[in-house]
Amino acid sequence: MAESSTQVRPGGRSAKVRAAVHHAVAELLAEEEAETLTLPAVAARAGVHPTTLYRRWGSTAQLLNDVATSRFTDDLVVPDSGSLEGDLRRWLSDVATDVADPDTLALMRATIGSGPAGGCACVEDRHRQLGAIIRREQDRGGAALDVESAADFLLGPLYYRAVFTAEPASADWARTLVSTYLATLRTP
Questions:
Q1: CA-based angle 115:121:127, to the nearest 5?
Q2: Is the pTM of this model over 0.90?
Q3: Rounded Cα gap, residues 19 and 34, in angstroms
Q4: Helices in the chain by DSSP H: which ranges?
Q5: Is residue 2 over pLDDT 50?
Q6: What Rg value do the Cα atoms of the chain yield, rounded?
């Protein structure tokens, strides 16, 4: 997964500028097509000079990557139901609900469209969350599952439906993905 190249200084004016810029990006994506998003437009909305954005982020793609990384990091609690199926069903239905949100979807589409690192910004934390669920199952004595394969099977269809179709996945549909995935693991 790609790491964000943005350096964030904690607190003070820097944090206020970053928050204002992130908020401006969200507002602009909710109002306009992603293709119209420019650093000068974001700067105007955020009330900062464009050079601040060029100096800190350098490009619209890097800004979108930072916003997405911030938005998708630690936004979901990894459930602990006591079983792999319960954890996956709860987590994936939460992911489905999240990506069905119009503002989240606009950010995902813009970020993915901004370049190769954009997709990583949208799923990096989801992979960490899934890895935590799988490690917990292994600690309980369950099967050693591969995070990448699980992500391909569970997140792939969900993100495909959210990003490329007009019909985002529902939480119920996401839970059926989990049942199908677990059934494939039991099939020799």
A1: 130
A2: no
A3: 19
A4: 12-31, 39-46, 50-56, 60-72, 84-100, 102-113, 116-139, 147-164, 171-186
A5: no
A6: 18
